[in-house]
Structure prediction request, 780 residues.
Amino acid sequence: VLGAIAGPDRPTRAQIAGRTGLTKTTVSSLVDVLVGAGLVSAGDPDRGLVGRPGSPLDLDPRGPAGLGVEINVDYCAATIVDFAGQVRAEWSEASDHRRLPPGEVLDRAAALGRRALEAVPGVAVAGLAVAVPGLVDLDGRLRRAPNLPGWEDLDVARELEARLGTDFALLECDNEANLAALAERWFAEPASRDFVHVSGEIGVGAGIVVNGALWRGASGLGAELGHVMVDPGGPRCTCGARGCLEQVAGLEALVRAAGGPAGAPGSDLGRAREELVRRARSGDPETLAALGRAGAALGAALAALVNLIGVSSIILGGVYADLAPFIIGRVADELGERVLSHAWAPVTLGVSPLGQGAAVLGAAATPVRRILADPVAWFPEMLTVSAVGG
Amino acid sequence: VLGAIAGPDRPTRAQIAGRTGLTKTTVSSLVDVLVGAGLVSAGDPDRGLVGRPGSPLDLDPRGPAGLGVEINVDYCAATIVDFAGQVRAEWSEASDHRRLPPGEVLDRAAALGRRALEAVPGVAVAGLAVAVPGLVDLDGRLRRAPNLPGWEDLDVARELEARLGTDFALLECDNEANLAALAERWFAEPASRDFVHVSGEIGVGAGIVVNGALWRGASGLGAELGHVMVDPGGPRCTCGARGCLEQVAGLEALVRAAGGPAGAPGSDLGRAREELVRRARSGDPETLAALGRAGAALGAALAALVNLIGVSSIILGGVYADLAPFIIGRVADELGERVLSHAWAPVTLGVSPLGQGAAVLGAAATPVRRILADPVAWFPEMLTVSAVGG
Prediction:
């Protein structure tokens, strides 16, 4: 019933009964329980009376909301998404986290989260989900972040919860590329139920959705696209290996290759990102050549991903969304040449409308989605009401 | 019950009852049905009597057998595996299939299959499974075989069935690397339930087993390891792209790089394979250098596979099984350097005991395994007997 209400069209009780196969009486009882729990709101005061002209139902924006915090290499972000799926607060801040101890970065991220919470005083935030640029195991521990030295074997979500001084009913941490892919699925509604969302930041990540759900691979760690080798003679990567994709197509490598300031501190990298896009749009030859090389390398790595995993659709996100006009042709060429099934099942290639904000948006929406999927687990009192009301 | 009998220890009816939680009476009835269907044989004449000292049960080698046929680039093979899992006939023949029209290769493969069938006149063969070096869709159609020009969009299993003039109850076709991985799982019993079996032939394939079952990826086409790019400036591949793994680490590339005869016809390639192994064992510097480069490229491609898919164990098969002493060190070095989770979850690396025969063995065992998994689907008369007997 909650799933039907969460759809885009504000159904009435009668419409829900039609779609779910439940009787109108049962639907009405269940809706009353959901309204009582504060999860659903009805469009007119006749709610609860069966048989009257139906009142349109919607998720209640005063219901449990989610706080998403992203700690990336060169910025932090915090976003609050309410139960109806609307963004209620958004903050982000540039700073180079490679130059700071993890504890200080966590303090800054917590301060940003607190600002977001304080911006929406009336909203009850039920959960916190954190996006990080590294390998996160199925218990939510960050095992390693190649671009953030010193971040190893850390329960980032619990560290932030402690700093915020709040107990969240839901607490999670995941790889930023995974959360960006979920945001793509939930907010951008791509045509295909199988896709890979590519997060182009300083690191290059891939979040893979198969049959509408996140696919984490056999080990649960997800797909590390940025460390696919694209050139055996390439430069040394932060992970220790040579010739990884990130060293050709990551944001910092792009800024350097396009003639921007090398090794810029974080606050400059935000400007360098804008400068890179500006130079590309102005047709600067050095910048366009660097982006062409990056597109070819990204295409080769994505072809390996498609040949190995078999996803049918690729969505370019993060900084690649802004740079798409200058790289997408080379990416498409490499896919056309390298993907073995291309002749009869060409891979579709698109650009994310979400850009850099995808990961923190996916994080903020994660607690809300968990509650929608299993409301009784989070609001056990509904069971009692249900037994009485139904 | 059939699953318990298929185990390695020849259990009695009482032991099966203990393991399955069924009553001894039920187990006895079911065993009688299986014996009646010719799938199970009992070790002494007291079968069917409950309470007596148990007679050990085993799969009946006179039960339905499987015919496996492999059509690879430079050889054909045919194998028959009986219902008890024993190889009853094995034939193989070298010939370069790139120089023959597909129809003639199918004739030769059918002739080999017929010889295998004629070698075991008393055995009832219930199914045919075919291994091919290309992309096979979920309907069993070969869509494309980069190393076999002209083999496109072909129902190879049905072509062979027609040539053999037999109707098989089970008819399948799959990628040779997938069937080799299944043979590894069924006959070599690797320690890990998650592994990738690498088939080193003229093409380089990967069969991935996750949680004990074949993993075919989101598209169902499986993992095309041989076409992962390992060198952007590398030679042109048969697939049309540049720098694919096969062009450095495939058998023909190895023979060429080690100073063997380039472009040898198939009958010579069998000898060239032996010559390659002989030269490596004798310490020929040119051969060892070529194998070192192949090992590094194979390791980089496998690291991409592990970083993207997350399997925990790699088994080198095909010609790599013979060449393992000369390549495994470089493969391990690349994995150690490139796999991001290596520090806390190192990938294990082993060698298949099955060698080149893995794919056709997996093919021959496939029909038998299908019947073991769902005997009633293939012997519906058992249901009637069961209703009467139970």
